[in-house]
Amino acid sequence: MKQLTSLRIACLALVIVAASAFAVVVLAAQDRFTLKSANGVAFSEFKGYEAWQVIASSQADGGDGCGTSPDPGCIKSIVGNPVMIKAYGDGIPASGKPVPDGAMMAKIEWAKSRNTSAPYGVTVPGPLAEVSFMVKDSKRFPDTNGWGYAKLKYDAASRTFVPLKIEASETRTLCHNCHVSGAKAARDFVYTSYAQR
Predict the structure, then answer these.
(1) What is the reported pTM?
(2) Is 144 exposed, middle or buried (0-12, 13-18, 19+ CB in 10 A)?
(3) Where are the chain's structural domains?
């Protein structure tokens, strides 16, 4: 019961922080939806991702490049569009069936911070660090098992997003090399499992 209450508190905190981050981004002068990653995946393809359902959250260990110094690591929320959420409901990707075309996921990353006003020690999302996207489109991305990726760093000083700079040889495989090496083909290269609630 105590674990369930802690999970509810953590989920509520993440929702509040996500809404706050969305409000900050909306106020920024940059039209982020004009940005494209090197492989052609456009930020505009993911309009509305801020309101997508949470699949799961994670806290990476320190030193994973959240852009703060010293780097305390990141808190990440992985969200999915309705097509991806339905796939999870149908048992995909755990069933070994491929994720359907049109499925999308976004990973929102914040540097870890502490909530000093809480009556107990709690780690919370701090400054926004980056947003990454995955879209399943078998015809558009045949070289990467049907997945297209975009990764955009957030610069708090200018309140703008910047697409990840990559080598020309990595243009088509952006992010996919890590998904191939870590996630299994039987899970259609998707790391994240739908968290029980």
Answers:
(1) 0.76
(2) buried
(3) 2-187
